């Protein structure tokens, strides 16, 4: 204690500022109805805007639109997580996006409902950091997906690449490394720099450590892709990072010599902080957890363009102590096999606007076969997992359901995912953005949100005009159709993303944060948040605080060593007696 007391005045002042600032940051299922009743309830719609006098959450309506099929019936019924049941995002569902899109807007405007459209990002957006491009971003969370600061610092994790290394923005994916950023917690957005004030801390993992998963594998590039970072103990400093480890074996023209190898991987490390900065140690061992099985989830041998990535872990409150993982996958089977079914189409009997299965197969829509996968942990360290059947499939609808996450609100289970306009199957369409599904449990007959479509937050897009791509946009398309991507829903309905392309300017920076208000199966963009719906750039606040006093003092004075009271510390924190002594010292 004497050694600590000699630093008394400085410590008390600093801890008071740091920890006080951190503490300030805390703070009927859809039922089947008769075809006749649904037809009677149809009324002329006003796409692109909310009807005058309409309810705030207009997207609750499932009555359909004249000239389009009705959405599929989904009960939201919950099943056992291990049950052999997979909900479907059907073509009948996805067609509701087009049904609620205006056909009369001027070329290049936004044809979608305003309440589901992300506000325009200014073309003069600031770069988050001049030394790295930033895209997929996530936060430090616990098993319930609450976002934590650590000893007075907010921390985020992003895919990063070097803009000065000689490759283009669109080639960044094969060079991706997970980086981390930090800033002081509890500072209002109005008092931060315009770019959000995030300080780049460097690569999260020591160089070369993530490559150990591919020992003995032939590859030309190796990359680290998205995942999630979880506090093992919310009063300690051990973190478990779940991410996608990738190895590419490519020709100079970027074609594949052999299919990419994607492995969902775990690594453990420790977070540290003092008054000046945040840093990490550990991450020396990377444990492969899951590789696609070819039974539920498509492999590289079945499809060289397969998806298998983006692990997000959580403990299900309906099954205390049981940990699950959701991830992006594709329905197993050889690419190009025309095996979509009537159930994937999802049309109601005798719907006059339904496609036939043969029409869909003739269009080639069977190449698009996304799903959202589920796995369950088989041990307490979360280092062993077992596949379960997919939660949602999008066969003949879309080929990518990226970065899925589970969001629980008012007893409802939401699955949010992101997807591109360019990955939709022939005959269906929708913007780049967020898609959501709601049910009564982790495995449910999930109902797509908002008119039964699934669309929650899309970039402003004219669905009457071809998309082009983010790197080669159609000049007649809305110039913000690719303005943001990789959205992540945070506590309170806040949504962060990264800037891709705004009026031809490429991004690689954090977008302005927006907020969606969610009520059962519907949502709206909160235009009262920020400035006309746009919050500050990179406004990613913690809603909980990890105050690890023993770790703070250790990091402050020992930089990883121990002295005085800290000799009593164990594993992830200090003993109760030690914590009591330190608290008495700080508060005296």
Structural account:
This protein is mainly beta and 588 residues long. The protein has two domains: 82-546, Glycosyl hydrolase domain, family 43 (Tachylectin-2, Chain A); 561-587, no CATH class. 12% of the residues lie in helices and 33% in strands. The chain has eight helices and 27 strands. It has helices spanning 2-5, 8-24, 35-41, 91-99, 342-345, 357-362, 549-558, 576-587, and strands spanning 78-79, 87-88, 133-141, 148-150, 153-161, 177-184, 199-203, 221-231, 238-250, 256-273, 278-290, 309-315, 323-330, 369-377, 385-395, 402-409, 412-419, 433-439, 443-444, 447-448, 455-458, 484-489, 494-502, 505-510, 514-519, 522-525, 544-546. Strands 3, 4, 5, 6, 7, 8, 9, 10, 11 and 27 form a ten-stranded mixed sheet that branches. It has a five-stranded mixed sheet with strand order 2-15-14-13-12. The chain starts with a helix and ends with a helix. Mean pLDDT is 89; it is low at 1-54, 560-573 and 584-588.
């Amino acid at each position: 204690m004497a050694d600590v007391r000699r630093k008394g005045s400085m410590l008390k002042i600093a801890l008071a500022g740091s920890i006080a600032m951190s503490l300030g940051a805390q703070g009927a299922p859809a039922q089947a109805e008769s075809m006749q009743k649904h037809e009677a309830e149809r009324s002329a719609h006003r796409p692109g805007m909310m009807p005058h006098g309409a309810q705030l959450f207009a997207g609750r309506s499932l009555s359909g639109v004249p000239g389009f099929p009705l959405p599929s019936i989904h009960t939201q019924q919950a099943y056992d997580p291990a049950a052999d049941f997979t909900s479907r995002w059907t073509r009948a569902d996805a067609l509701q996006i087009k049904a609620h899109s205006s056909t009369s807007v001027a070329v290049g405007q936004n044809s979608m409902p305003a309440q589901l459209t992300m506000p325009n990002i200014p073309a003069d957006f600031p770069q988050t950091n001049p030394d790295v491009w930033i895209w997929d971003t996530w936060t430090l969370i616990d098993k319930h997906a609450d976002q934590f600061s650590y000893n007075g610092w907010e921390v985020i994790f992003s895919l990063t690449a070097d803009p000065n290394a000689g490759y283009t923005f669109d080639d960044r994916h094969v060079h991706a490394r997970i980086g981390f950023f930090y800033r002081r917690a509890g500072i209002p957005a109005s008092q931060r720099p315009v770019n959000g004030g995030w300080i780049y801390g460097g690569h999260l993992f020591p160089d070369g450590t993530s490559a150990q998963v591919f020992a003995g594998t032939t590859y030309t590039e190796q990359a680290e892709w998205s995942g999630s970072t979880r506090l093992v103990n919310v009063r300690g400093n051990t973190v478990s990072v779940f991410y996608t480890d990738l190895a590419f074996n490519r020709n100079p023209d970027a074609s594949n010599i052999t299919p990419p190898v994607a492995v969902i991987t775990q690594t453990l490390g420790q977070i540290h902080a003092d008054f000046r900065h945040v840093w990490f140690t550990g991450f020396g061992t990377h444990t492969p957890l899951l590789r696609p099985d070819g039974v539920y989830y498509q492999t590289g041998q079945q499809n060289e363009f397969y998806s298998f990535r983006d692990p997000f872990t959580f403990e299900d409150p309906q099954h205390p102590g049981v940990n699950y993982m959701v991830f992006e996958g594709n329905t197993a089977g050889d690419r190009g096999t025309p095996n979509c079914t009537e159930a994937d189409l999802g049309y109601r009997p005798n719907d006059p606007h339904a496609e036939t299965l043969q029409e869909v197969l003739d269009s080639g829509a069977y190449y698009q076969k996304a799903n959202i996968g589920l796995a369950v942990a088989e041990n307490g360290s979360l280092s062993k997992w077992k596949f379960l059947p997919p939660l949602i499939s999008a066969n003949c609808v879309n080929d990518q359901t990226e970065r899925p996450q589970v969001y629980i609100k008012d007893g409802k289970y939401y699955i949010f995912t992101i997807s591109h306009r360019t990955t939709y199957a022939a005959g269906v369409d929708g913007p780049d953005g967020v898609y959501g599904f709601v049910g009564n449990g982790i495995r449910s007959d999930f109902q797509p949100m908002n008119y039964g479509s699934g669309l929650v937050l899309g970039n402003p897009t004219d669905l009457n005009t071809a998309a082009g791509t983010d790197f080669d946009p159609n000049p007649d398309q809305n110039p913000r159709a690719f303005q943001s991507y990789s959205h992540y829903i945070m506590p309170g309905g806040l949504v962060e993303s990264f800037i891709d392309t705004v009026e031809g300017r490429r991004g690689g920076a954090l977008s302005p944060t927006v907020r969606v208000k969610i009520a059962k199966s519907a949502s709206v963009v909160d235009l009262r948040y920020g400035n006309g719906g746009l919050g500050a750039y990179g406004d990613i606040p913690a809603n909980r605080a990890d105050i690890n006093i023993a770790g703070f003092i250790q990091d402050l004075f020992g930089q990883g060593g121990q002295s005085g009271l800290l000799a009593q510390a164990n594993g992830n924190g200090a003993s109760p007696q030690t914590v009591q002594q330190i608290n008495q010292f700080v508060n005296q």
